[in-house]
Amino acid sequence: MPANSQRSQRPAKLLAGLLATGGILHFIAPKPYDSMIPKQLPGGARAWTYGSGVAEIAVATAVAVPRTRRLGGLAAALLFAAVFPGNVKMAVDAQRRGTPLPLRLVAFLRLPLQIPLVTWALKVRDRA
């Protein structure tokens, strides 16, 4: 594969790796993800944690495979948007509980991070 082609696939491969890692972490350490699940959702938090982990791994696979990358990039953007309420819940909970400042900052800094993640996913889609 030419060096230019490898470089052009790097953003997609990195995005797939990020998504796969996040998805796997839902199974290795589910408790932090459980606490992000809004109580208004039906069913148990653990089921949503595992389901979202499966979704992240599936989207990672779609992004990793060149043939499905365009759809995978769109799915990644939608996934990042879909988890935003969970990130808001995490930040609000951290504020309410008086979580130590460094952890509270991390919770709040995750919110604007969604914008570059969505943008990244859409660029991967557009370049597929």
Automatic annotation (TrEMBL):
The chain crosses the membrane at residues 12-28, 48-65, 72-91, 103-122. Keywords: Membrane, Transmembrane, Transmembrane helix. It comes from the Bacteria. PANTHER family: DOXX FAMILY MEMBRANE PROTEIN, MEMBRANE PROTEIN-RELATED. This is DoxX family protein.
